[in-house]
Amino acid sequence: MSHPAEHAAPAQSTVVTVRAVLFDMDGTLVDSTAIVEQVWSEFASRYGLDIEEILRTSHGVRSGDTVRRYAPAGADVVALTAELDAMERTRTDGVIALPGAAALLQALPDEAIALVTSADHVLAGIRMQAAGLSMPTTAVTSEAVTLGKPHPEGYLKAAAMLGVDPADVVVFEDAPAGIAAARAAGMRTVVVGDAGDLEDGMWRIPDYSAVTVTAVKNDDGGHLLTLTL
Length: 229
What we know:
This protein is an alpha/beta fold. It contains eight helices and eleven strands.
Protein backbone atom coordinates (compact mmCIF):
# COMPACT_ATOMS: atom_id res chain seq x y z
CA MET A 1 0.00 0.00 0.00
CA SER A 2 1.46 3.32 -1.01
CA HIS A 3 1.45 6.41 1.14
CA PRO A 4 0.56 9.86 -0.24
CA ALA A 5 3.90 11.23 0.96
CA GLU A 6 5.73 8.90 -1.43
CA HIS A 7 4.18 10.69 -4.38
CA ALA A 8 4.40 14.24 -3.04
CA ALA A 9 6.11 16.65 -5.41
CA PRO A 10 9.49 17.86 -4.16
CA ALA A 11 9.66 21.41 -2.87
CA GLN A 12 10.68 23.86 -5.55
CA SER A 13 13.99 25.63 -4.97
CA THR A 14 14.39 29.29 -5.83
CA VAL A 15 17.44 30.27 -7.87
CA VAL A 16 18.64 33.87 -7.70
CA THR A 17 21.48 35.11 -9.92
CA VAL A 18 23.23 38.34 -8.92
CA ARG A 19 26.58 40.13 -8.99
CA ALA A 20 26.71 40.96 -5.27
CA VAL A 21 25.17 39.91 -1.96
CA LEU A 22 24.53 42.32 0.91
CA PHE A 23 23.89 41.17 4.47
CA ASP A 24 22.34 42.82 7.48
CA MET A 25 23.98 41.59 10.70
CA ASP A 26 21.82 41.34 13.85
CA GLY A 27 19.07 38.78 13.35
CA THR A 28 20.31 38.02 9.83
CA LEU A 29 23.82 36.61 10.27
CA VAL A 30 24.12 36.87 14.04
CA ASP A 31 21.61 36.03 16.76
CA SER A 32 22.15 38.69 19.43
CA THR A 33 18.55 38.93 20.58
CA ALA A 34 19.23 38.33 24.27
CA ILE A 35 21.75 41.17 24.54
CA VAL A 36 19.69 43.62 22.50
CA GLU A 37 16.62 42.98 24.64
CA GLN A 38 18.65 43.24 27.84
CA VAL A 39 20.16 46.61 26.97
CA TRP A 40 16.92 48.17 25.74
CA SER A 41 15.05 46.80 28.75
CA GLU A 42 17.46 48.68 31.03
CA PHE A 43 16.91 51.84 28.98
CA ALA A 44 13.11 51.45 29.14
CA SER A 45 13.14 50.74 32.86
CA ARG A 46 15.23 53.83 33.59
CA TYR A 47 12.73 56.14 31.89
CA GLY A 48 9.48 54.25 32.48
CA LEU A 49 9.05 53.42 28.81
CA ASP A 50 7.14 50.60 27.09
CA ILE A 51 9.79 47.98 26.34
CA GLU A 52 7.55 46.06 23.94
CA GLU A 53 7.04 49.19 21.85
CA ILE A 54 10.78 49.93 21.81
CA LEU A 55 11.68 46.39 20.77
CA ARG A 56 9.00 46.43 18.09
CA THR A 57 10.37 49.58 16.47
CA SER A 58 14.11 49.47 17.22
CA HIS A 59 15.08 46.25 15.46
CA GLY A 60 17.37 47.01 12.55
CA VAL A 61 17.45 50.73 13.40
CA ARG A 62 20.50 52.71 14.57
CA SER A 63 20.62 53.00 18.36
CA GLY A 64 20.88 56.79 18.22
CA ASP A 65 17.69 57.00 16.16
CA THR A 66 15.83 54.91 18.75
CA VAL A 67 17.20 56.94 21.67
CA ARG A 68 16.18 60.15 19.90
CA ARG A 69 12.68 58.77 19.38
CA TYR A 70 12.04 57.60 22.94
CA ALA A 71 14.28 59.53 25.34
CA PRO A 72 12.45 62.10 27.48
CA ALA A 73 12.68 65.78 26.59
CA GLY A 74 15.94 67.32 27.70
CA ALA A 75 17.85 64.02 27.72
CA ASP A 76 21.41 64.05 26.32
CA VAL A 77 20.81 61.85 23.28
CA VAL A 78 24.48 61.65 22.32
CA ALA A 79 25.60 60.62 25.81
CA LEU A 80 22.75 58.12 26.19
CA THR A 81 23.52 56.54 22.82
CA ALA A 82 27.20 56.25 23.72
CA GLU A 83 26.28 54.59 27.03
CA LEU A 84 23.97 52.06 25.38
CA ASP A 85 26.52 51.33 22.65
CA ALA A 86 29.18 50.71 25.31
CA MET A 87 26.85 48.29 27.10
CA GLU A 88 26.28 46.35 23.88
CA ARG A 89 30.01 46.15 23.13
CA THR A 90 30.84 44.53 26.47
CA ARG A 91 28.16 41.84 26.28
CA THR A 92 28.72 38.88 23.99
CA ASP A 93 27.28 35.96 25.96
CA GLY A 94 24.91 33.97 23.77
CA VAL A 95 25.90 35.65 20.50
CA ILE A 96 25.88 32.92 17.85
CA ALA A 97 25.79 32.66 14.07
CA LEU A 98 22.60 31.58 12.35
CA PRO A 99 22.81 28.02 10.99
CA GLY A 100 24.70 27.92 7.70
CA ALA A 101 25.82 31.57 7.85
CA ALA A 102 29.54 30.79 8.20
CA ALA A 103 29.54 28.35 5.29
CA LEU A 104 27.69 30.78 3.02
CA LEU A 105 30.06 33.65 3.81
CA GLN A 106 33.04 31.41 3.12
CA ALA A 107 31.55 30.27 -0.20
CA LEU A 108 31.05 33.83 -1.47
CA PRO A 109 33.90 35.89 -2.95
CA ASP A 110 34.83 38.63 -0.48
CA GLU A 111 34.89 41.28 -3.22
CA ALA A 112 31.24 40.53 -4.05
CA ILE A 113 29.73 40.86 -0.56
CA ALA A 114 29.16 43.61 1.99
CA LEU A 115 27.77 43.99 5.49
CA VAL A 116 25.17 46.77 5.88
CA THR A 117 24.34 47.15 9.55
CA SER A 118 22.81 49.66 11.93
CA ALA A 119 25.56 48.77 14.42
CA ASP A 120 28.71 50.89 14.47
CA HIS A 121 31.99 49.49 13.18
CA VAL A 122 33.32 48.48 16.59
CA LEU A 123 30.14 46.66 17.65
CA ALA A 124 29.86 44.94 14.25
CA GLY A 125 33.39 43.59 14.61
CA ILE A 126 32.75 42.39 18.17
CA ARG A 127 29.49 40.63 17.25
CA MET A 128 30.83 38.99 14.10
CA GLN A 129 33.89 37.73 15.97
CA ALA A 130 31.79 36.48 18.89
CA ALA A 131 29.66 34.54 16.41
CA GLY A 132 32.73 33.09 14.69
CA LEU A 133 32.03 34.87 11.41
CA SER A 134 34.56 36.61 9.19
CA MET A 135 33.90 40.31 8.61
CA PRO A 136 33.55 41.18 4.92
CA THR A 137 36.13 43.70 3.71
CA THR A 138 33.29 46.00 2.64
CA ALA A 139 31.07 47.09 5.52
CA VAL A 140 28.66 50.02 5.75
CA THR A 141 28.09 50.64 9.46
CA SER A 142 26.00 53.23 11.29
CA GLU A 143 28.61 56.00 11.25
CA ALA A 144 29.07 55.66 7.47
CA VAL A 145 25.57 56.92 6.61
CA THR A 146 23.64 60.11 7.20
CA LEU A 147 20.28 58.36 7.21
CA GLY A 148 19.81 54.92 8.76
CA LYS A 149 17.38 52.17 7.81
CA PRO A 150 14.57 52.24 6.63
CA HIS A 151 16.29 54.79 4.35
CA PRO A 152 18.10 52.99 1.49
CA GLU A 153 21.34 55.01 1.81
CA GLY A 154 23.34 52.19 3.39
CA TYR A 155 22.39 49.60 0.79
CA LEU A 156 22.92 51.99 -2.12
CA LYS A 157 26.33 52.96 -0.72
CA ALA A 158 27.36 49.30 -0.39
CA ALA A 159 26.35 48.56 -3.98
CA ALA A 160 28.35 51.56 -5.19
CA MET A 161 31.39 50.46 -3.16
CA LEU A 162 31.20 47.02 -4.80
CA GLY A 163 30.69 48.59 -8.24
CA VAL A 164 27.37 46.91 -8.96
CA ASP A 165 23.93 48.12 -9.96
CA PRO A 166 21.17 47.79 -7.32
CA ALA A 167 19.22 45.59 -9.75
CA ASP A 168 22.11 43.09 -9.66
CA VAL A 169 22.09 42.74 -5.88
CA VAL A 170 20.29 40.51 -3.42
CA VAL A 171 19.93 41.54 0.22
CA PHE A 172 19.52 39.21 3.19
CA GLU A 173 17.50 40.97 5.91
CA ASP A 174 15.32 40.11 8.90
CA ALA A 175 13.91 43.40 10.22
CA PRO A 176 11.06 45.47 8.78
CA ALA A 177 13.25 48.61 8.71
CA GLY A 178 16.00 46.80 6.82
CA ILE A 179 13.60 45.11 4.43
CA ALA A 180 12.08 48.51 3.64
CA ALA A 181 15.57 49.93 3.04
CA ALA A 182 16.51 47.12 0.66
CA ARG A 183 13.26 47.43 -1.26
CA ALA A 184 13.59 51.22 -1.48
CA ALA A 185 17.06 50.65 -2.93
CA GLY A 186 15.51 48.56 -5.71
CA MET A 187 17.16 45.33 -4.58
CA ARG A 188 15.82 41.79 -4.48
CA THR A 189 15.43 40.67 -0.89
CA VAL A 190 15.59 37.42 1.03
CA VAL A 191 13.81 37.66 4.38
CA VAL A 192 15.50 35.60 7.07
CA GLY A 193 12.74 34.64 9.50
CA ASP A 194 9.09 35.63 9.56
CA ALA A 195 9.01 39.43 9.28
CA GLY A 196 6.64 41.15 6.91
CA ASP A 197 4.79 40.10 3.78
CA LEU A 198 6.49 38.94 0.62
CA GLU A 199 6.19 40.86 -2.64
CA ASP A 200 7.62 40.22 -6.10
CA GLY A 201 11.38 39.92 -5.87
CA MET A 202 11.25 38.70 -2.28
CA TRP A 203 11.75 35.25 -0.77
CA ARG A 204 11.86 33.79 2.72
CA ILE A 205 14.23 31.34 4.47
CA PRO A 206 14.38 30.21 8.12
CA ASP A 207 18.21 30.25 8.06
CA TYR A 208 21.05 29.38 5.65
CA SER A 209 21.06 25.61 6.17
CA ALA A 210 19.72 24.89 2.68
CA VAL A 211 21.29 27.83 0.83
CA THR A 212 23.99 27.00 -1.72
CA VAL A 213 25.99 29.23 -4.05
CA THR A 214 28.16 28.94 -7.11
CA ALA A 215 30.43 31.81 -8.12
CA VAL A 216 31.81 32.35 -11.61
CA LYS A 217 34.27 35.14 -12.39
CA ASN A 218 33.24 37.40 -15.27
CA ASP A 219 35.52 38.80 -17.94
CA ASP A 220 35.10 42.25 -16.36
CA GLY A 221 36.60 41.01 -13.09
CA GLY A 222 33.27 40.80 -11.29
CA HIS A 223 31.36 37.70 -10.28
CA LEU A 224 28.16 36.00 -11.31
CA LEU A 225 26.67 34.47 -8.18
CA THR A 226 23.95 31.84 -8.38
CA LEU A 227 22.21 31.22 -5.07
CA THR A 228 19.80 28.37 -4.52
CA LEU A 229 17.42 29.06 -1.63
